[in-house]
Design goal:
single chain; alpha+beta; Porin; 8-stranded antiparallel beta barrel; 28% helix; 47% strand
């Protein structure tokens, strides 16, 4: 009996020794699998984080700037406007010739008291000598005016700088202006001044390029003068028509 018990004890001890390494190996395999799974999960998280950072990080550099400004240009941010075409040729110069007469007039202290409607004919030339771009023009007006007084005939030439607006280059058909200058009588009645102070206020319309570079002009206003060395004065309302030459 004792031998039988001894054999059983030895058998059980041998089985116990055999199972212990197997359990240790199984536990080691389980631990290794868990570590591998954790390392794989950590690697995947790092890959996702790096991919997200690449997507969300701003693009910088010369190439990115070029693409940015190209998008701005093609999306309607251009501010350059098409150049406007002036009705005048290069240089914006013009010259007009006009002729007209007086519609209404008064004369004071120039010859006898009977002298009233003494103005007969007015003809002149107007030349553009300068401009303030986008606002006004500076003109030179040279006029010849004839008068019939009780004492005789008088002839005067006037040199009048004038300002008109809007500027001719704008193409606007209407214009307004004023000017003042010197009048010289080539023929004057006796005992009256040969010099006068002339001033004018006027308005008109210009129609360019009616026939090639020739246009039409209509103008009306007042032409007044004071005799500088005597008491005479003449005030007149005039109307004139003419042509405009562009060159």
């Amino acid at each position: 009996m004792n031998r039988i018990y001894l054999v059983l004890v030895i058998t059980l001890m041998a089985g116990s020794l055999t199972l212990t390494p197997y359990r240790a190996f199984a536990q080691a395999v389980e631990v290794s699998d868990e570590d591998t799974t954790e390392e794989s999960a950590v690697g995947q998280n790092q890959n996702v984080t790096e991919s997200t950072e690449k997507k969300t990080s701003p693009k910088v550099g010369t190439e990115a700037a070029r693409k940015y400004f190209k998008k701005k240009t093609t999306s309607g941010f251009k501010t350059t406007s098409a150049p406007t075409k002036s009705p005048l040729p290069t240089g914006n110069r013009y010259l007009s010739l006009q002729v007209g007469g007086f519609l209404n007039q008064d004369t004071y202290n120039w010859g006898t008291q009977k002298n009233r409607d003494v103005g007969v004919l007015n003809a002149g030339v107007t030349y553009k000598i300068g401009e303030w771009t986008g606002s006004m023009d500076l003109l030179f007006k040279g006029d010849v005016t004839t008068f019939n007084l009780e004492e005789g005939r008088a002839v005067k030439i006037s040199f009048v700088p004038a300002i008109t607006f809007p500027d001719a280059a704008s193409g606007f058909p209407l214009y307004f202006g004023a000017g003042a200058g010197l009048g010289i009588f080539f023929k004057q009645i006796s005992k009256e001044s040969a010099l006068s102070l002339d001033y004018t206020v006027f308005a008109g319309t210009r129609i360019y390029n009616v026939f090639k570079q020739v246009g039409l002009l209509l103008e009306a206003g007042i032409k007044n003068h004071f005799l500088l060395l005597s008491d005479g004065q003449h005030n007149g309302v005039y109307a004139a028509a003419g042509v405009v030459f562009l060159f």
